[in-house]
What we know:
Layout: H1 2-5, H2 10-29, H3 36-58, H4 63-81, H5 88-113
Amino acid sequence: MFPVIFRGKRFQDLILLLLAFVLFMSPWLLGFAHLETAKWNAGVVAVLLAYVASASLSETRQWEEWVTLVLGAWLIAAPWVLRFIADVPATRMHWGVGALTVVISLWAEWTYRHPPGLSVR
């Protein structure tokens, strides 16, 4: 069962699902639920991220990596754009999940373009 789960980019999608769950729960776990904009942003982006990652688990499409890349970039920019940069836990959570999302989406894009087992000579 493990080889099937970790084949292709399923591993990246499972990590994105975990990140989406952590992001969704973060306002209550880190104590920034009183900040409406940060809380709503975390919730909406988490739902979108979970949707794209779960859709990617069932059928792999290249656009999914680009959508997750944009969501990750938004998470990095959101504390400035939505003006909750002064709240350290909310900002760090958005930056951390955003950076991981960007890295994972780039990794998934690399995996999509360079599938294992194919060699170029």
